[in-house]
Amino acid sequence: MRVIKTEAINTTEQIKDLVDWLVFRYAPPVPYSPTMYTDLEGIDLCREGSISILTIMINTGIPTRRVYLLDIHLLGTQAFNTAGVKQKTLKDILQDDKVSKIFFDVRNDSDALFAHFGVRLQGVQDIQLMDGAVRRTIISRKYLSGLAKCVEKHVFISQSGTNLASWKPAKERGERLFKAEHGGSYEVFNQRPIPEEIISYCVADVQCLLSYGIGSAHRPISGKIWSMKRPRNASRRLQNRSISPTA
Fold it and tell me: Which of 69, 113, 233, 244 fits a 20 to 30 Å CA distance from 15?
C-alpha cells in the first residue's frame, strides 16, 4: 500500500533540509534518480498574480511518497534562494535540466516562477502536451485536455495508490473554497494555517501525475510510448512552455 507523508515547509531551515536531501538524492552516481511531480497554486497564477503554494511530490521508488507544500506566500524569495550545505538552492534544482520535473500544463507556473522569482524551469515533462502528442490523428491533437479529463482517461490505480473515487472528492472539496460559483475565493490559498481541504487538493494534484508512469526511461502514457510516438514539433512546443520569456 502506498503511504503519503505530507509536510508544510514554512521556514528557511526546512528549505535547507529539503534542498540538501534533493542534492544528495541527485548526486551521481545514484541507482535511482527521484522524480519531482510539481504544481503551483496562487491568486491569478501568472506574471500578473502571485504564487501561494508550491507542491512537490518526490517519488524515490519506495512505497512511501513525500509531498512537500512550500509556503511561498510566507517565504517569498527565501524559498528559492536559501542555500543548503552544498551552497545549492531550490532555484538551482528547478533550473537543472538533469532533474526531471513533471507538470500538467506548465505555462502559467513557468510564467509566474520566472516573473516573480527569476526561475527558468528546465528538465520539464508536461503531461498535457504528452497526452495530446500521442493521439493518433492530427485533428484529435488540435485541442488539449484539462487535468480531470486526462485523469479519467489515463489514471492507473496500481501506480499511485488512488483512483477516481477518492481523487475527485478531494479536488471538489478544495474547489468549493476558491471557486466563485461556490462562494469561494482564491485568497484561501493565502490563509494560514493552510486549510486541510486545500492541503488535500494540492496533494491530489501531484498524486494523480504519478499515475501516468512518467519518469521512467520510456515515459508511458496509457500504454503508449512518448519517446517513440511524439510528433516532430512536440519537443519545441514543450521547450516554449517551460522556458519563460525574458520580458
Answer: 244
Query: Which H or E run contains 51?
Result: strand 50-59
| Euclidean distance between CA atoms 39 and 54, whole angstroms | 6
Kindly give, in sequence order, each residue whose CB lies less than 8 Å from that of residue 197, ignoring residues fewer than 6 positions away: 173, 174, 176, 177
In the block, cell 519531482 appears at 36
Dmax over CA atoms of the chain, in Å, equals 51
Residue 27 is predicted with a pLDDT of: 79
The torsion defined by the Cα of 81, 84, 89 and 94, in degrees rounded to 10, comes to -140
Instruction: Name the grid cell of 196.
Output: 486541510
Tens of pLDDT, residue by residue over 54-103, are: 999 988 766 667 899 999 999 999 999 999 999 999 999 999 998 989 99
The amino acid occupying position 87 is Q
- In this prediction the pTM is 0.82
User: Which residues lie below 8 Å from residue 25, measured CB to CB, with a gap of 6+?
Assistant: 33, 34, 58, 60
Specify whether the CB–CB gap between 241 and 111 falls below 8 A.
no
State the pLDDT at residue 231.
Answer: 47
- Helix (H, G, I), strand (E, B), or coil: what is residue 54? strand
Using one digit for the tens of pLDDT, what is the confidence trace for 21-68? 999 888 777 656 678 999 999 999 999 999 999 999 988 766 667 899
Any idea of the CA torsion for 34, 103, 66, 224, to the nearest 10 degrees? -60
pLDDT-above-70 percentage for the chain: 68
Measured between alpha carbons, how far is 148 from 127 in angstroms, rounded to an integer? 12
Contact partners, residue 77, CB within 8 Å, separation at least 6: 117
Nearest Cα residue to 124 out of 6, 8, 1, 237: 237
